[in-house]
Amino acid sequence: MATNTAGTASTGTKVRMTHAPIVSPADTPNFLDNEFVPSKATHWIPVYDPATNNLVTRVPQSTAEELSMAENWDRLAASITLEQGKTFNDARGDVLRGLQVAETACGITTQLPGEVLEVARDMETRSYREPLGVVAAICPFNFPAMIPLWCIPIAVVTGNTLILKPSERDPGAALILAELAREAGLPNGVLNIVHGAVDTVNFIIDEPAIRAISFVGSNRAGEYIYSRGSANGKRVQANLGAKNHAVLLPDADKETALNAIAGAAFGAAGQRSLVEKARKLVVSAGFEKDADVGPVISPESRRRIESLIARAEREGASILLDGRGCKPEKYPQGNFVAPTVITNVNTNMACYKEEIFGPVLVCISVQTLEEAVGLLNANEYGNGASIFTKSGSSASYFQKNIEAGQVGINVAIPVPLPMFSFTGNKKSIAGGGANTFYGKPGLAFYTQQKTVTSLWRRENVHSGKQVVMPSHL
């Protein structure tokens, strides 16, 4: 006897426990935007009951439109491109580096078990970590998905609730993350998004219920948050400004090194040399498929970058490649600065001292590796530093003597994967680097260690016979 049930074996409301043929088997739908949605596919993959080889359902080869609906990675990236200006590929990288933290957090609870030791007769000491309770994160504009994802997974997996304030200049990615967290089953009240500027920050700093604050941003804001937050008895992890140096030695593989440096400086991928190819980089809006360099976030940012280039020129530097006044034909009203290369720079110039936040590469010539290391160590920032060389001895010298939290050897941006911690040094991280992001230090930051010592004397053990009957079944 032929029978039929609503839906497929996986989506129907009834449990099918018969091998009888199914009349007009239902096609397997997509699950998009929290709903079962019939596919518009033109190609289908049949699924058969192995016991009878009767058709059970058809699985769609989902259309490109359906696949893109399911791709929250692209949805997040699109929000970043629209609000922050990054090229779409660069925005996808922003999301990826954050997702790596989320992925690591899924298995990081193996690092949370406590310890126990019998320290004397009948006495033991236990040590374990407990959640802080309510914690907060204040995020910058330049990584709208990555920095929230530095905080959300680690704060939540350690048992806390989180108040997150995205940058008021590009909040969209954080809101999408909150929506996805809700769909994933995060309980109500665990993740909260608030908006605003100084008043919101001051509330977070002063609110007694908030036990810890994570911050990424400028030194001015970060030092204020660290000082006032610490004075209020809060833990504060604050990653601050940076001037990330790359040392290029004569023996380096020039093609590889210059490609890496150009990619790091201008946000462009592919086979690029430093100045010659930088001229060929396409400056355009982030959704344009051929765009290598997108706009900066605001007219104020563009004016600041261009003023630093002009000041470098006044101070005696050479503008080898000038990106000021860039107006792409399709987007003449945009906040564009084209790739810029400044040479003949010294360490007293503003373009060297200040974090530029734009596609500007500053070049300084030195005579020896020792001089290069001394120059880097004299800089007040110590976020990251790289060396490009074929010499293991030179690399070893650099690694041991450089004062930077993150060191790259033939790697332009030495940000570690999240099983390690995002470290810093000097003025690039508040509090001397005691509180860093994700990895084992991130777990420690979001938890409070508790030590319990107990004494249960063995002579107090009740040794008499005892019968306990159940009072109910």
Automatic annotation (TrEMBL):
Pfam families: Aldedh. GO terms for molecular function: methylmalonate-semialdehyde dehydrogenase (acylating, NAD) activity. Residues 69-272, 273-452 form the Aldehyde dehydrogenase domain. InterPro entries: Ald_DH/histidinol_DH, Ald_DH_C, Ald_DH_N, Aldehyde_DH_dom, MeMal-semiAld_DH. One of its GO terms (cellular component) is mitochondrion. GO terms for biological process: L-valine catabolic process; thymine catabolic process. Belongs to the aldehyde dehydrogenase family. This is Methylmalonate-semialdehyde dehydrogenase. The lineage of its organism: Eukaryota, Fungi, Dikarya, Ascomycota, Pezizomycotina.
